[in-house]
């Protein structure tokens, strides 16, 4: 059987230090030993080199043997019961008697392997009652505090009393994972770290990820020698994930970092809030120090206490902020927006600033700025609004450091370091922006954050200077709290609805005025039409009368004069016909007259009687189908079919006698995609001169004539009049034709019920 160690010997450099595989070091700390057992057989597949020092068996003797064969069936039974009862990674420790020695063990599972870590039972175990007293006293302290900072101070004090470490810090992260010593309890002769800040590079991303998985991390002696882990060499690249391990060996970079701080031992407890790493309880000792598993769990309990209280304390603070903001929101929602000018009244309202504790606000609407408080100039507001509309795609945005996004605004960062922006329109720069001014602060760093990693002739190492380094932070406002952000969003949504209603109101007013103007214009046009159809007909009648008298009384006029008078008379007649048709067309509009069921057979028969002479003159043949009744206005329908029959006779082919065929579909037809519009179709077909299909739509335009006026008399109004009649009946008209063969006019009348 071939055996190998799994020690990770990868060299850390500038390109991989943030990806260092710290979860698979292949080694452990020496204050305990490790066994890796196969899931089903409980065969020892991994073990640490120091097993011989604790249980008298070398790693080479252990690997490949079953747990029961080495430690007995009773120990295996205890282990299986512990796993079956769900105690892995819980506060319940497994006490095993292995080879005449007592051990406290933790067990966890990873990729088909049970990882057992054992530490000798300490002779200095603190009485459980003492641990309980500390815990119960801490609970009393917790009820006596009001702020989160006071509570964290008591947590630091209580944890130090329980564990005996020289320094205990509650370490809080900001949004970028830079850390701050938020609370501290420290030995009197040591320099305090309270209020110091540490750059995010001190705890790289993969370390933060492990803090999320493994809530307790212990280093008993910084000067320890890592103990390698061995395994049976039966699989290529075989390894063991120690993310949840208590004994896991530490990154050389982190060990050097602690050396530079002169720390001898550490205990770290993760503080998880809303599934994110909120902070740490960091315990430092300036010499080697180990604490029993029981004391570690008691210390970890302090972490549970504080994380439960983070939510309560922050929720209480946020509730108070939310309550004040809600009062302001309710007051702002009482404003009515009945004109664009009212936006200035809204901007001037004191509660609009109290909504999110801003110092200024601006509303941009239709390229005009309405503002109040400490804001940029109008041109700068418009520039910002245009950029934000593009950057957010007309969405929302907030920041406490605008210059990180809009560097050209640095000149006004004293007024606009922080903003909350909400678009009020999807297609413009209409928006509302709240502002906060610059808050210049002094941040005390534990060493220069820009020198967190140093590369020198010795290679890569963490920073070795933790001397106080002060940074002046400018162009940054006080951070926006979540209740402030939420309330601003709620009001922006409310204002957007009001503005949409205002836009609709303005559009309605605009269309009302246009309607009034159109009504006035139509009235004027009707007057003009009256003049053109009545006053102008009188001189035309006189022209016709005089020209007719001259033509009948003057016998000795020259042929040229006779021809001119004849053409003048004919032109006057055509103009009079045109004026009459225009009068009919312009007066044909949606009427208030009641619709009634009209029998088309009777109606068309009446039309034929009125046109008897014209029909007889052309020897026109009529073919009539069994026509239905339609819902319509009788006199308009008479006009409709009179025009269509007259057109068919007028445009008859000189090569054959005219035939007009009027028929109907046997069943109503649905022509809309959703089958909601159903029509009764009537066809008026003839065998006249026809037309080319490309003109099927244009023939319904007013004054449109496809043939020379010398060949066919008419005004070009007839078919336009027909289309208007069909529109008045909520229907429509179409035409199809073939040049030299004839035309078909289709009339579509809506049917209420099939």
TrEMBL record:
Residues 147-304 form the Phytochrome chromophore attachment site domain. It comes from the Bacteria. InterPro entries: BphY/WalK/GraS-like (IPR050351), GAF (IPR003018), GAF-like_dom_sf (IPR029016), HATPase_C_sf (IPR036890), HATPase_dom (IPR003594), His_kinase_dom (IPR005467), HisK_dim/P_dom (IPR003661), HisK_dim/P_sf (IPR036097). CDD domains: HisKA. Keywords: ATP-binding, Chromophore, Kinase, Nucleotide-binding, Photoreceptor protein, Receptor, Sensory transduction, Transferase. It holds the Pfam family GAF. This is histidine kinase. Its EC number is 2.7.13.3. Residues 531-753 form the Histidine kinase domain. GO terms for molecular function: ATP binding. The keyword ATP-binding applies. It comes from Flavobacterium arundinis. It catalyses: ATP + protein L-histidine = ADP + protein N-phospho-L-histidine. In the N-terminal section; belongs to the phytochrome family. Gene3D superfamilies: 1.10.287.130, 3.30.450.270, 3.30.450.40, Histidine kinase-like ATPase, C-terminal domain, PAS domain.
